[in-house]
User: Fold this.
Amino acid sequence: MEKIIRMPQLRQLLGEFPGNMKFCFAYGSGAFRQHNNDDGNNMLDLVFVVRNANKWHAENLARNPKHYSQLLRLLGPKAITNVQEGSGAKVFYNTLVRSSEGQLIKYGVISEVSLVEDLLDWNDLYMAGRLHKPVKVLVEPDQSSQLPTALVQNLHSAVHAALLLLPEYFTEVDFFRRIASLSYDGDFRMIFGENRDKISNIVLPQLQHFKRLYEPILKHLDNYVDIPKSDNTAVMCHQDVSPVTKVHHLNHLPRVPQVKLVRAWSHGPRSKDTEDCLRAIAHDPECCEILERSLRKIVWRSSVTQSLKGIVTAGLVKSVRYSGAKIVKMLQSNQLPKPDPNKMIKIAETVAKKTEPRNAEKRVE
Assistant:
């Protein structure tokens, strides 16, 4: 039976770290059930969003020095902050950390400014991609900050992108798989190092979480897509795929994908008016393929640079242990029975019906 950490335990863990977090969430197999993750000791993934990264690392270095590699302990908080914000997806990860209660943790630290930029513009589609999926919110963002608006905007962007990449007819499961795959397609780790069924393993057991997360977003798109409210998730959904609708979706994509789309379509630096180019792309039969290639380029760059940064942040020994565990897990997944989508959907729906609304986990909406 897999071990899923409950909300009180999650919040208790935060006491081991410096406070004053602007936003904090948990994700991954330690926070949500995933298919074929039943080893009983799943690593818990956390993300801490902070206002001043240098100050936070200074406090954490004093409190938890062994979380950092020996080199970075010697160099100090300023060097750690430079590594965090100077490369990759502007996230600093400490991995294979044991809490005082023995829970295995990986936690990322990102500044509030960097997170907002990724959510709005998809500079890296790294944390933005993580937040396309359900998460367990441990520290709510301040309503007076930009974060709440940026979090919701990121979900809207994901829906517009997913609809552009889907055909006229699709199922609800296809829709959520497409959303979940936005930040995985192009990730070099999916070639070697990740379970090839990762997307299905995320979506199918969490289907009800996905539905609740995106229900408010889809209400704004009734004129463009019809996703019937039904317990039968295999029921066909329909969307308008006319150029007029594609123009609407393209105009609501984040800035970086738009720039890459225009450059890809015009075969060079952006020299034409963006709005005119997007209108032309909407009429191009290869609109979907151009968008897919553009998103893959964003994900490829951020996944490669962030992984290379991990060798510095974690240290060589931890990097080898962490990567080795990922590879073993991938190889084992190839030998395990593949998840039956219909069976997993039925299980997810049964669990959701038995769950009282008061026990529903918080989500970003």
User: Anything to note?
Assistant: Residues 307 and 360 are 34 Å apart (CA to CA). Strands lie at 21-27, 44-50, 92-98, 104-111, 136-139, 169-171, 225-226, 236-239. The first helix runs from residue 7 to 13. The first strand starts at residue 21 and ends at 27.
